[in-house]
Design brief:
Layout: E1 4-5, E2 33-42, E3 47-53, H1 56-65, E4 67-73, E5 79-80, E6 86-87, H2 98-105, H3 112-122, H4 132-152, H5 154-159, E7 163-166, E8 174-181, E9 189-191, E10 193-198, E11 212-216, E12 219-225, H6 226-229, E13 235-241, E14 249-250, E15 270-276, E16 284-291, E17 304-306, E18 318-324, E19 330-335, E20 343-351, E21 359-360, E22 372-375, E23 384-392, E24 397-399, E25 403-405, E26 420-423, E27 428-432, E28 441-449, E29 457-458, E30 468-472, E31 481-490, E32 502-505, E33 516-522, E34 527-532, E35 539-548, E36 555-561, E37 568-571, E38 580-589, E39 601-604, E40 616-622, E41 627-633, E42 640-648, E43 654-660, E44 665-668, E45 676-685, E46 690-691, E47 697-700
Parallel strand pairs: 2-9
Antiparallel strand pairs: 1-5, 2-3, 3-7, 4-6, 4-8, 8-10, 11-12, 12-15, 13-14, 13-16, 16-17, 18-19, 19-22, 20-21, 20-23, 23-24, 23-25, 26-27, 27-30, 28-29, 28-31, 31-32, 33-34, 34-37, 35-36, 35-38, 38-39, 40-41, 41-44, 42-43, 42-45, 45-46, 45-47
Helix pairs in contact: 2-3, 3-4
């Protein structure tokens, strides 16, 4: 049989998957599709294989017919011969019959996981209602517990038909293993499990790595990475030492599987174990032993030290008071019981909002007997709130309620800056400015005037807290401009000076007058256009438009700003002979208003082109053929016909024959011997234009 090169093989990624169904446990999503997840380990003298189907339904069907396990050696280049697959068992592997389980799960057995496995395979149903969903849920539970038991107990895995050891291997050889079922594919499609094993050296046992821990009050929490450990371990033993690591005691008699609730994803970052302890500040060492899907105990992890710590906060300070002591100084006082023994001291925090973050203003805790503090750097331009935190010897803190310190402020804020604004055609005015840098700004008042040098009147009835103000003005006035100023006000009613004056122009609602097309000239260069400009004083630009008879769309071809007084233009772009073109003008004023379109000029652009004559011509008498051969050369490309002109014995030329423009020869057979003939060739184009005939060819027949 032809060898095959193995390109890609998917093997089991996580041993815990043996104890959990992938997909819907009821089999509702894909009830007739599954895969066999296969994992293998080489320990030096044998290869141990462990497998499990991915759905409860596949497990049920496979238990009826069993599993076939075979292997084939791999060549050095990674290829293998499928005909070399060698079965490892004489018959399909199935779960043991009930009476055979007594050897590992009987009353005297100490293998509790073998007993669990026997119950999942042969136990009676505990579902009182024979409904489909209830039975599916029960079988899913059996499936999960059975596969977990197979992970924990090699004997249970063998009895369930989910484990085999291959001892007939040759060290240094690579093998491909395959596990499949005899389940009818029309009934249930179960993809086989495939894995490659290299026997050049034994695989080392993995070791758990404790990531970090939390030292709580009377409790220690251990954390280890889920995604790092789940490919190697199904469960764990946690051990603790209280004699500096000399002796460790196992904390869990049953293997620990980190359960997650429905609200927490199975991909949560860490697995967690919580150990309750009686005394705080007693040093303990912890280590974790992983259990592989092959029922093996990994070496213990490196130990990590931890102790319970006091996490109970002290009593919070009472009767906090903050008073202005002049300038930027605030005196803070508070009360605290004298009998508190574990108080290390107090920290003071300051903020501008009682519900937001406070900044510490004491670098180190004040003494436990201190009940007063002077803040020399209070912010006179903002609100000042203070909190006092009591810190105990364990570092726990309790925070008081926030207290406001009223600071008398007589400094006005700076005038508003960067005023901008606009007026639309309805008379709606929008004025904007920058928010001041002062923290105690209460708002702004806006003033207006129709003249820059007149008194300004207030248009806001109260201080607004925005930096945008809208006003409505009349557009029916001769006054072209309006002026605004803004004043800032702080919480102590201090008024700033006026801002710089903002000048706004009322928009123009009258469009400019239209320009008038005067006359035009057609030359070989193009169409020369002349017009009379708009007479409007606020004219901004004049735009010349052109429309051809095909598109019927006006397109701008040139724009002249008001600074250019030119009133003519020569159009030389893409003008086609025989086509009609129209020209018109639109004027725009400084406010974007446009005039009516000028009365268009419509014209037909003539064909001013001269065409090349035929200058290369020859006439030759062909006595044997009783004809004269006229030949010529015309290199011009185009759609045209040739006109043959002939003169006999010195008479005047007359039009003789018309031939296709694709020809370059003509035979004249209407001849008389002894006569002289002259020939010329003219060109007539499809558009009616003619090229004059050029040179003359003469011969005697």
């Amino acid at each position: 049989m032809k060898k095959l090169v193995l390109i890609f093989i998917t093997s089991i990624q996580c041993a815990l998957l043996f104890a959990q169904s992938t997909g819907d446990s009821t089999g509702i999503n894909k009830p007739f599709e599954a895969t066999i997840n296969l994992q293998a380990v080489y320990r030096g003298d044998s290869v141990v294989l462990r497998w499990a189907p991915t759905t409860p339904g596949a497990w049920r069907e496979a238990n009826k017919v069993g599993y076939l396990v075979d292997r084939a050696p791999l060549d050095d280049d990674g290829s293998f011969d499928p005909s070399n697959f060698l079965p490892l068992t004489s018959a399909p592997l199935k779960p043991w019959p009930l009476d055979q389980w007594a050897t590992i799960a009987g009353p005297t057995s100490t293998d509790d996981f073998a007993k669990v496995a026997a119950q999942t395979v042969h136990g009676k149903s505990m579902v009182p209602v024979k409904g489909f969903i209830a039975q599916a849920d029960e079988y899913s539970t059996r499936f999960s517990f059975g596969l977990l038991a197979a992970d924990m107990s090699p004997a249970a895995a063998r009895a369930m038909g989910l484990r085999v050891a291959d001892r007939g291997i040759k060290k240094g050889t690579s093998y491909i293993y395959r596990v499949r079922t005899l389940v009818d594919t029309l009934k249930y499609t179960i993809a086989p499990g495939i894995i490659i094993v290299h026997t050049d050296r034994a695989q080392p046992m993995p070791v758990v790595v404790i990531d970090h821990l939390k030292e709580n009050q009377n409790m220690i929490e251990l954390f280890w990475k889920r995604d790092f450990h789940t490919p190697y371990f199904s469960a764990y033993y946690i051990e603790r030492s209280d004699d500096n690591g000399k002796n460790f005691k196992r904390l869990n008699t049953s293997p620990y599987v980190h359960a997650v609730s429905e609200k927490i994803s199975i991909t949560a970052e860490y697995m967690v174990y919580m150990d309750s302890i009686k005394a705080n500040y007693k040093n303990y060492q912890y280590r974790i032993i992983g259990i592989t899907p092959f029922g093996e105990l990994a070496p213990a992890s490196a130990s990590i030290s931890a102790m319970g710590r006091d996490r109970t906060p002290p009593q919070a300070p009472l009767n906090v008071n903050a008073k202005h002591a002049g300038g930027s100084r605030v005196r803070i006082t508070w009360d605290y019981p004298k009998q508190s023994k574990d108080i290390k001291g107090f920290l003071i925090g300051r903020g501008n909002n009682p519900t937001k973050q406070f900044t510490p203003i004491t670098a180190e805790p004040l003494g436990s007997k201190v009940r007063e503090f002077i803040d020399d750097h209070a912010d006179a331009m903002a609100s000042n709130y203070y909190i006092v935190a009591a810190i105990d010897t364990a570092g726990n803190a309790a925070v008081s309620l926030a207290h406001y310190a009223m600071i008398i402020d007589s400094l006005p804020p700076a005038p508003p800056t960067h005023l901008t604004g606009s007026i639309d055609t309805t008379g709606l005015v929008t004025v904007r400015w920058d928010f001041g840098k002062e923290k105690d700004i209460k708002g702004y008042q806006v003033y207006f005037s129709n003249h820059r040098d007149h008194e300004f009147s207030q248009v806001t009835h109260h201080a607004i807290q925005d930096t945008v103000f809208q006003d409505t003005i009349s557009m029916k006035t001769l006054t072209k401009k309006i002026y605004y100023r803004v004043v800032a006000i702080d919480y102590n009613s201090n008024y700033s000076a006026f801002s710089e004056i903002l000048e706004l122009k009322r928009p123009d609602v009258i469009p400019p007058t239209a320009a008038v097309m005067d006359h035009y000239k057609i030359t070989e260069k193009g169409v020369e256009l002349y017009w009379v400009s708009s007479s409007s004083e606020d004219l901004d630009k004049t735009v010349l438009y052109r429309m051809d008879e095909q598109t019927k769309i006006w397109k701008p071809i040139i724009t002249y700003p008001i600074t250019n007084n030119k009133q003519s233009y020569t159009d030389t772009t893409a003008l086609l002979a025989g086509k009609f073109y129209s020209y018109s003008l639109i004027c725009f004023d400084e406010d974007g208003l446009q005039s009516k379109r000028s009365v268009p000029i419509k014209l037909k652009y003539p064909d001013l082109k001269t065409y090349q004559a035929v200058t290369s011509i020859d006439a030759k008498s062909l006595i044997d053929e009783k004809s004269i051969l006229v030949s010529w050369n015309y290199p011009v490309k185009g759609d045209y016909r040739f006109i043959i002109y002939r003169a006999v014995n010195g008479s005047a030329f007359s039009s003789y024959k018309s031939v296709s423009g694709s020809l370059s020869t003509f035979k004249d057979k209407e001849l008389k011997k002894g006569s002289s003939y002259e020939y010329a060739v003219g060109v007539v184009f499809k558009n009616g234009k003619k090229a004059p005939y050029g040179k003359i060819a003469k011969t005697v027949y």
